[in-house]
Write a structure and sequence with these properties.
Elements lengths: L1 H29 L5 H8 L3 H5 L2 H16 L12 H42 L23
Helix pairs in contact: 1-2, 1-4
């Protein structure tokens, strides 16, 4: 009976190692990040198990260094041309100019509106506050919350 249990444990261990190795190879081949957490999550193993496997740990560390020093070339069809970058820059500059103009017009409109409000306040004396007091100074009209 114990030999059957040992064989089952050995088989489960081999399957776990195989899943981790295949996951590591697949992540490396597709250019995905090589981290202990990512490999453990994808392979369905624990990080601590990965750390306790010297050969897998060494391979993970080697591939992590390879991917940090090696850049994956972008296919020519996906590379941005100088002309397309210039067009994007020009479009962004045009948008900035338009937004600055809008901002300036809105500020002018606000200033005019506030000026009209101030004029109306001066032309119509307040009935609740004497002319020399502001609402904050008129203690009868200010609600106090405690």
């Amino acid at each position: 009976m114990t030999t059957a249990l040992a064989a089952a444990a050995r088989q489960r261990s081999d399957q776990t190692r195989q899943r981790a190795t295949q996951t590591l190879q697949r992540l490396h081949a597709t250019g995905q990040p090589i981290t202990f957490a990512h490999i453990a999550r994808t392979a369905g193993v624990s990080r601590s198990w990965l750390y306790h496997q010297p050969d897998l740990r060494a391979e993970i560390n080697r591939l992590r260094q390879d991917t940090t020093t090696q850049t994956i070339p972008i296919p020519p069809a996906e590379q941005r041309s100088t002309q397309s970058l210039q067009q994007r820059l020009n479009a962004a500059l045009d948008e900035i100019t338009r937004l600055k103009t809008d901002n300036h017009q809105l500020r002018q409109h606000l200033a005019q509106h506030l000026g009209h409000q101030r004029q109306n306040r001066i032309a119509t004396p307040s009935t609740t506050c004497p002319p020399h007091e502001t609402p904050d100074q008129n203690h009868n009209n200010v609600k106090r919350y405690r």
